[in-house]
Specification:
Elements lengths: L30 H20 L7 H13 L8 H17 L8 H5 L3 H26 L5 H14 L5 H14 L1
Helix pairs in contact: 1-2, 1-3, 1-6, 2-3, 2-5, 5-6, 5-7
Amino acid sequence: MTDENMFCFQCEQTAGCTACTGAAGVCGKTADVARLQDDLTGTLVALARAENGGRGDTESDGLMLEGMFACVSNVSFDSKAIAALERRVRAKAISLGEFSSYDMGLLWDAQEDIRSLKSLLLFGMRGVAAYAYHAQALGKSDPVVSAFLYEGMRAVGSDLGMDELLPLVSSAARST
């Protein structure tokens, strides 16, 4: 992927039903926004790693939900807002004593079955996070949902195989 090109295949509008790979997606998302969303996602993996066992605090939970929701198709194409959110998530992960951002290129270049399972998990969790983000705005939260999002994000950033990923994907599918 060059600086002028993107890789995005998370929505039903993808070019040729495979992926948007040019300067902008069919939906209008620019390559810059796609890169920023990947950076934010990699930083959310770092936050999940930094949170011990998925028992995040209220701030971490809020950042996880806000960050995952911001990466849902067509929610935000505001590059400044996405970059600012990534910096907030990064600062929180660093404050927890660990920061190791996940390079999303590793996911996009992974073996096809692993890429498919991790993508399905990630996109499913983004859908769960969208509902949870709106519930949070209404003053409701569920620690089970938060714990699952941390677990799933750690899985996205790991070297798990199909046997370990399938149960997580099934859990995400039941949650959406």
